[in-house]
Amino acid sequence: MSEEHIVRSDAELAARVAAAAGRILLEVRESTLLSGKGLGDAGDKTANQFIIKALAQQRPDDGILSEESKDTPERLDKSRVWIVDPVDGTREYGERRNDWAVHIALTIDGRPEIGAVALPGLDLVLRTDQTGTLPPAGDPLRMVVSRTRPAKEAVEVAKRLGADLVPMGSAGAKAMAVVRGEADAYLHTGGQYEWDSAAPVAVASAYGLHCSRVDGSPCLYNNPDMAMPDLLICRPELAERILAEVADIGKLDAE
After folding, report:
1. Which of 17, 27, 55, 226 has the fewest CB atoms nearer than 10 Å to its CB?
2. What is the pTM of this model?
3. Domain limits of the chain?
4. Nearest CA to 157 among 170, 167, 143, 139?
5. Strands annotated E in 150-237
6. Comparing C-alpha atoms, which of 130, 231, 216 is closest to residue 175?
7. Would you list which residues are annotated within the binding site?
8. What is the CATH code of the structural domain delimited by 10-127?
9. Would you tell me the crossing angle of helices 239-254 and 152-161 to the nearest 10 degrees?
């Protein structure tokens, strides 16, 4: 992306930055013998430097919150804040898998209005300004869960729905599996941060999917506390049932 060229559209900027960062990450992975955490750290650092510089050049008045940069309080006073995760799924990236992502979101007054999620291993960028029709629901239903530590609530809800579990890597990869019709729901209760979900929620919402916290409240961003511990992204016709099941499981656990 040329430093001299001004990208007029926020959505186009998000998509370009996500795609370019994805290409950089693939190049880093191809050009090194590093693996595991060493490769993940190298990718995080390189992609973050590119993303922060690109956004600062193109939108110098906006705030930026990145997993890989030191947070500063200035963003809290801004209406427009970019929330980014240079490598969502560092473990998967370090293991040279494909189920990792690059997240670029623009929140406006706390709401994830614009964004892009790149899946570089699949040569895909999903974005808020170029959406399509949701494929039919699965039969049986399919719920994506962590491939290493599936949340007990998600496993129990899948059991109650008669849904198949689909293990997968990063949060972005799981959320985009629902967007792409490879799954019907993504329920997470194991703890995350704003950069894990801002871009996926922006894109999933643009596609007409239900996105909320597990108590049904909206996902709001650019908070002083960056923790965003739970999330539901699913087909809209499933939202009421899944939220009810989560609430019921919570009651049983409290007894």
Report:
1. 27
2. 0.95
3. 10-127, 142-254
4. 143
5. 164-168, 185-188, 210-212, 231-234
6. 231
7. 67, 85, 88, 196
8. 3.30.540.10
9. 120
